[in-house]
Design brief:
heterodimer; A: mainly alpha; 7 helices; B: mainly alpha; 2 domains; 0% strand
Chain lengths: 193, 69
């Protein structure tokens, strides 16, 4: 009895430690990934202002932006993803018509939330704002200029169409589409803000 | 007629309620494209660095999941 209880305790502690290690690892990956994204945005922002960037400066930017962009990613992920998960969990118990209506409403919500949060990361990188402040600025800027942001997304969507061509998209998306649209988003943020 | 004058006239044509928005959004893409064309090699290098680093991070994450599973 005692031996089996002790075994269960060790197994639970082991599983808990594994989950903790996984969580810490995921946070570390998210932190580095956010930092890289911030460094990339900062580099493109410099290119728009005709400033060149060295590799050293690029990697030094990683810790500078990592924490704030990670917090923005988590907040945006929760704002966009949590209601979506909630509706997906509830959908089976709602019935056919109500679940379709709920899914349509939640898709509209996700689109609106993504639309309003478009400038959050550019704001944190260009103006160095804190995460909450950057999200607030993004929402206010998008509400003040919805037509410009909408047109930005339309143009970005049209430019993405060649990306459906296999093999070609391996070059088109990372070498042309990604830098161009991110630069345009940064430029638009600087214009509207 | 120079390209700049063409551009100015084009932008003047867009100064309608919808045109103003179009001018700003299009101007953002035009400026971004000019900047991209001016330093295409730099853009390409940092984009490749970004893609490779993201792939490496994604791979390490998958490895960690597989290891724990």
């Amino acid at each position: 009895m005692f031996a089996s209880g002790a075994g269960f305790g060790f197994a639970a502690v082991g599983a808990g430690l594994s989950l903790l290690a996984l969580f810490v690892g995921l946070l570390a990956v998210l932190w580095v990934s956010s930092g890289l994204h911030g460094a990339y945005l900062s580099t493109l922002n410099g290119f728009i202002s005709k400033r060149s960037q060295s590799f050293g400066a690029f990697f030094l930017c990683v810790p500078k932006f990592a924490t704030s962009l990670m917090i923005i990613s988590i907040i945006c992920g929760v704002l966009v993803g949590a209601p979506l998960v909630f509706v997906f969990a509830l959908a089976p118990s709602l019935g056919a018509i109500l679940s379709i209506v709920a899914l349509l409403l939640i898709i509209l919500y996700v689109l609106a939330a993504s639309f309003l949060l478009a400038f959050a990361m550019p704001c944190a990188v260009v103006d160095g704002k804190e995460p909450i402040s950057a999200i607030r600025v993004s929402v206010v800027s998008c509400l003040r200029n919805p037509d410009q942001v909408f047109l930005f997304f339309v143009i970005a969507f049209v430019l993405a169409i060649p990306g459906i061509v296999p093999i070609f998209n391996l070059l088109y998306l990372p070498l042309f589409y990604m830098p161009l649209t991110i630069s345009a988003l940064l430029r638009l943020y600087r214009t509207v803000h | 007629m120079t390209g700049a004058l063409h551009h100015k006239r084009f932008m003047r044509c867009l100064r309608t309620p919808l045109g103003g928005a179009m001018a700003s959004a299009m101007q953002a893409f035009t400026d971004a494209f000019s900047s991209y064309r001016a330093s295409v090699a730099d853009y390409a290098i940092y984009s490749i660095v970004m893609v490779i680093a993201s792939m490496a991070l994604s791979f390490s994450q998958r490895f960690a999941w597989a290891f724990l599973a």
